[in-house]
Amino acid sequence: MGLLALLLCVSCKESASGPVTASNEEEIQHVYYYGICADTLDLNEYRVKRGETPSSIFSRFGFSASETGRIIQMASDVFNPRRLQAGASYFTLNRRDSAATVCAVIFAKSRLDYAVIDWSGDSLRAYEFKKPVVYKRQYAEGTITSSLWDAMISSGANPVLAMDLANLYAWQIDFFDVQPGDSYQVLYDVAYVDDTVALGINDIRSAIFTHQGKVFPAIPFVQDSVRMFFDTSGNSLRKAFLKAPLDYYRISSKFSNARFHPILKRYRPHHGVDYAAPTGTPVKSIGDGKVIARKYDRGGGNTVKIRHNSTYTTVYMHLSRFGKDIAVGTRVHQGQVIGYVGSTGLSTGPHLDFRVYKNGRAINPLTMEAPPDVPVKSELRPAFDSVWREVMAGMDSLHRAWVASRPDAGPATEL
Question: Residue 132 and residue 197: Cα distance in Å, rounded?
Fold first, then answer.
């Protein structure tokens, strides 16, 4: 099939000002697929078969080897044939004629991104097309009976929301220590493509977490052109230190002045917290700082020591390996992976031994109070006070509606 013959494919032009009006009474609505007017075309979907190549795909549609080579070369800026994978989707637009003539081929790069090779007009063109994303606001709440993850599933919310909440409250709440009876309310946005396929949670808009009887609101507010979260007193939820150096694993041993050592078989101080976790679990620095030790210690195994300021130092022990580019003198930022859980040194199983020193003296990481980040500026307090009252009133209304319509907590509500 020659390219010139294909150029005879009928096309329709998209008006820059909107749909074409046939008369004062009737408005013609055009159909578009991937940026192509498809009023006279049909869309067909295929899957790349194992062993298929762009050449074999275009050959199936009647193209010669030389024509396929020209097309692939012309489309090289938007389509890499080496990245074509078995199972990936691709589409054709076909004329409604007896031969069902192909006028365009569209290769999916992801759920959002596509490479379009189009000759439905008067020339051959290749371009990238991104599907529009629609954001839908949803609300969910629940009470924890076993874990935050299970509570999310029981409430019908996306369980990944548990990770987002943990990140939001990382400076206030130790999620290793959540208790039955703790609860959450959260207003969040979910990203959709094609209006039905959820891509995932886009953003938390506001939240309230109740932990051991204490209420922790998360109020969004823009300060210095940055959207941040604060409590109702105007203190930033972000603090100098994270509550824990890794995600979602159990505490196997707490801070103690006399713990029985399972290997040495005697009582000795354990001035840290042991987090039991699988080997390879990422370990994060709880705050910004400078690496002052990266070494193997007979007792602690692979160990990283970070000085955060003139007051605080943290130590991470029994690592299976160190994080990328972690060396003495390296500057690290809060949340950066500095190593991975292991069982090196005197250890009976994979875990992290995490320790905090204040002015050179070991303190209990679980009871440490870290100073907050920059609070709401005094000149912005009137605006912030208005925002937090509005947010809290809105969350209360959503809670009342939730209870009224779902006394047993049903699926997340789309707003």
Answer: 12
Residue 181 resides in a domain: yes
Mark which of 91, 111, 130 sits at the end of a domain. 130
What is the number of alpha carbons within 13 Å of residue 163 lying toward its C-beta? 8
Q: What is the pTM of this model?
A: 0.62
CATH of the domain at 110: 3.10.450.350
Please give the residue that has the higher pLDDT: either 21 or 154: 154
Beta strands per DSSP E along 172-224: 183-193, 197-211, 214-223
Task: Please tell me whether residue 67 adopts helix, strand or coil conformation.
Answer: helix
Within 8 A by CB and 6+ apart from 99, the residues are none
Please calculate the CA angle 291-296-300 and round it to the nearest 5 degrees: 95
- Mapped onto helix, strand or coil, the DSSP state of residue 100 is coil
Co-location of 122 and 159 in the same domain: no
Give the span between the Cα atoms of 80 and 53, in whole angstroms.
11
Question: What band does 397 get if pLDDT is binned at 50, 70 and 90?
Answer: very high
In the predicted structure, residue 218 carries a pLDDT above the cut 70: yes
Q: Cα separation of 282 and 197, whole Å?
A: 30
**How far lies 53's CA from each of 48, 83, 110, in Å?**
8, 10, 18
Confidence of residue 252 (pLDDT cuts 50, 70, 90): low
Q: Give the range of the structural domain holding residue 66, as residue numbers without chain letter.
A: 3-130
Number of domains, the chain = 3
For residues 63 and 151, state if they share a domain.
Answer: no
The DSSP secondary-structure symbol of 309 reads S
* Residue 332 contacts residue 338 (beta carbons within 8 Å): yes
Where is average pLDDT lowest: 82-96, 243-257, 383-397? 243-257
- CATH value at residue 199: 3.10.450
The closest of 74, 152, 82 to 118, measured between CA atoms, is 74
